[in-house]
Amino acid sequence: MKTLFEKIIAREIPSVIVYEDGQVMAIRDIDPKAPTHALIFPKTVVPRIAEAKMGDKDLVGHLILKAAEVAAKLGLATGGYRLVINNGANGGETIPHLHVHILGGRQMAWPPG
Length: 113
Known about the structure:
Elements: H1 4-9, E1 17-20, E2 24-28, E3 36-42, H2 57-73, E4 81-84, E5 100-104
Antiparallel strand pairs: 1-2, 2-3, 3-5, 4-5
């Protein structure tokens, strides 16, 4: 069964795409938790960060670097932003497909949980 993100990649579910290349896609979150909230995920399924292998290091590195690029594209570079990766049920993971939340546009609280 396809994950939600695989369906978005396949254009089976509409989404507002803010970035895409051969390895990753970034979209606007449909239930934003900040004024700016995007998600970036690999096109190859890695279920979660805890299951990433050494062979995924280039993909994971690309994902993080592109997250920073997308944050800048969304106007968050000057004021700052937060990148969040949830892992497992207690970490808040709801979709078993590695993804990074890009949150910004307001002051973030600490601790976050």
